[in-house]
Amino acid sequence: MDYPAAWLQGASLGEKIACELRLQIIRGHYAPGTVLSENQIAADFGTSRSPVREAMKVLSGEGLIRLERMGAVVIGMSPADMEELFDVRLLIEHFVVKRLVRKDTAPIAAALERLTDKMEVAFKHWDTAEFSLQDFLFHETLVLEAGHTRILHTWNGMRQLILTVMLAATEQRFSMKSTESVVTIAKHRTIATALMDRDEERLVSLVDDHYKDTRNAVNDSVLSPFRGSVLQD
């Protein structure tokens, strides 16, 4: 499996299969229109069809596949789908940072700094999985600390999809020896500092700027194969 094993501790077999298939779909290894056979996937994973069905229900709920008899057809994520994912993330983070400035932000900002330090270490060791995870946890910390049940519920519904997109984008950036990750680290630090200062206006501006850069990075990496296939069609 290519999906990081450390991220799968405690996961059911169906969840593990879903994580691997999700990653391959986001990477573009399973192109839109590809037929996924329950029997073939079960054979690949050395299991019965029951965990495969569990995985396919999850991916269908995320809009990545369309269920068919004895299998599924890959839908994937188009540029419009990815844009909508970023739209929702941006709405959530705008809301949570405005909520967080009313709290004692010192411990939250300190936690964000620690996560950013881990991102920096991961970058130095060229560890894509660890960099992606710490980047993801930075943003998840903002959501968790906001203490809003419905926002958290919405976030959890997209959690695995967001994490997988971040992993695929980081893999692409690292493979191209891109220095964009250095900029990402610096921007995370500025967000932590603005939170410490309870500067709501600056926080919102920084979140906007960060998501603009992230959208561009995903468009240039994860979505480039999709765009190429569309042009060829």
From TrEMBL:
Taxonomic superkingdom: Bacteria
Lineage: Bacteria, Bacillati, Bacillota, Bacilli, Bacillales
Name of this protein: GntR family transcriptional regulator
UniProt xrefs under InterPro entries: GntR_C, TF_FadR/GntR_C, Tscrpt_reg_HTH_GntR, WH-like_DNA-bd_sf, WH_DNA-bd_sf
Signal peptide location: none
Organism this protein belongs to: Paenibacillus enshidis
Transcription regulation as UniProt keyword: yes
Entry-linked Pfam families: FCD, GntR
Keyword annotations from UniProtKB, A to Z: DNA-binding, Transcription, Transcription regulation
Keyword Lipid biosynthesis: no
All copies of domain HTH gntR-type, residue ranges: 11-77
